[in-house]
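Q&A FORM
Asked by: J.P.
Topic: structure of Uronyl 2-sulfotransferase

PROVIDED:
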Amino acid sequence: MMTFRTTAAHKRYGGFVRVRSGRVNRLAVVLLRVSRRDLSCCLSALLLFCLGSVSYQLNGGSPKILLDVGYYIGRFADGFGSLAPRVLPFPSQVVYNRVGKCGSRTIVLLLRMLADRHQFTLVSSDIHNKTRLTKLEQENLIQNISTTPQPFLYTRHVHFLNFSRFKTDEPVHINIIRDPISRFLSNYFFRRFGDWRGEENHVVRTPGMKEDERYLDINTCILESYPECTNPRLFYIIPYFCGQHPQCREPGLWALETAKQNVLDHYLLVGVLEELEDVLLLLERLLPHFFSDVLNIYRSPEYRKLGNLTGTVRKQSPNLEALRVLHQRMEYEYRFYHFIRAQFHQTKRKIGLKSGPQRLNKQDQTEDPLT
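REPLIED BY: S.T.
REPLY: Here is the structure written out as tokens.
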């Protein structure tokens, strides 16, 4: 039988091996514990993500806390200046193809005050009387909009532009409409008599209007079917959402359904002027980089000084018979208006707003659609 001598050196190194082995075992236990803890954290994060996704699906968008966290993280990052590159807000491209006599003057005034405060590019087009574009004009306009420095908000009186048709990144679309008869009456008297910025401005806007036409009684216009008070001129709101197709300008079911589908597919929000303060609250919630604090500005004396000059003068209401005839002629406009109101109220419920119609200020009911 062979025997082995255990030298002193062997005993010394053997002890080292046993000590090292013990350390490795303890390290393995620690790593195992850390791995279990990490696994628990990962599962918890996954659960929160799933719950957040469900909340997103049920509530029609990101919960308020996520919007607020994202907004303030963006502001925090911007505060470091050159130490951190500026992160563009999402969305960073907004298009407001404003409908005439539907609060556009109010919103543009507010946007001018907000643009400097929130550091976004505001482009408010001076083209007021060209809502229908050729294919080439659409392509050129979309190209010009898309190359605007971001973040930007572009606004113009123009029928809906389908960016995806021209293989361009789709911006976020927003808009506001109002009761169709109220919009028609506001426009009817504004074209004739202007607003409080100076009654002579109506002469500049409608220089070719004869005196008998300018002072035409609204009831006579409606009941005797003058062109201004019949279709297709009464078919005004729907084309802004239907788009540039020629059939969009023909009163009928096709244009109505196309407009409704475009709202569902392309618009983040379409508000109603009768509930303007809720519209502003939703815009502030959904697009904080552009509209944060907009309601406080709207209620401020600074805004009132500018807004009080835009009310239409000499405005009158038709008699009941004329109103009944007008309502019949605007059947599709009202079907679209009721659809938008229902969608708007649904969005309010999802966000948590429960207020109803509000009393509007004079300038919000009759403001100039052309500025």
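FOLLOW-UP: Residues 16-59 form one domain.
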